[in-house]
Amino acid sequence: MLSDEDKSKSLVLKSGEELFFAPSSAVEARLKKSGYENDLAIQSTNHSDLTAGVYEGGFKVWEGAIDLCNYLDSSVQAEEIAEKSVLELGCGAGLPGIYAAKKNAKFVSFQDFNQSVLDCFTRTNVQLNSVNLERCRFVAGDWVDCLESFEGQKYDLVLTAETIYSEASFTKLHDIIDRTLGDDGIVLIAAKLYYFGVGGSVPAFMDFVKRQGRLNVKDVWTSDTAVPRKILKLTRIR
């Protein structure tokens, strides 16, 4: 149940639609109430956006997630979401997945590296947006470890934002997409063109996907900003 501490902030999409998310003060209060104050992931948030293998930035609303919500709102047809199964990888706040749920997705699975993120941020945001928790699933862990949790489940729409910041993660991301994407499914990945200082980039990821020979990949949206941001669309090679 939500409390007065969970008074929300909102993301207003270009169409005017609002998505709500918990402010940092509410998240911190929930973390303490849930016994996560000594969690290594929580300690990492005090000095870094991410710490590889410990905390993957889940308590921050990233630009790519906002881009992805706006793209879903403006460029994806309602019938491509309604009654579809949706997976958001590296979900953090979970806003793209929440948007899909509000547009009548059949069910949405939210995956994040940290259980604390899912328990104290993602789940809260789902409730703030009046999404039925019975239509949602929450899975914590590294993408390799999560594969067993998704065994046999195929998704119509896979969403992920800001997850290609390091080339070291390309194989794991590609593998979990390949294992969970339905035959006619669509993947949308939001990312910065280049991640300076950490090594990942859109061109490097696109080249990687093409070399694997299992998925088509194309650029479907570009921001008009000094450091361009992109949205990629992936489908199965038939």
Automatic annotation (TrEMBL):
Q: Which molecular function GO terms apply here?
A: protein-L-histidine N-tele-methyltransferase activity
- At the top level, the lineage of the source is Eukaryota
Record key words, sorted: Cytoplasm, Methyltransferase, Nucleus, S-adenosyl-L-methionine, Transferase
Q: What biological-process GO terms show up in the record?
A: methylation
* Locations listed in the record: Cytoplasm; Nucleus
Principal location listed in the UniProt entry = cytoplasm
Q: What class of enzyme is it?
A: transferase
This chain belongs to which protein, by name? protein-histidine N-methyltransferase
Top-level taxonomy: Eukaryota, Metazoa, Ecdysozoa, Nematoda, Chromadorea
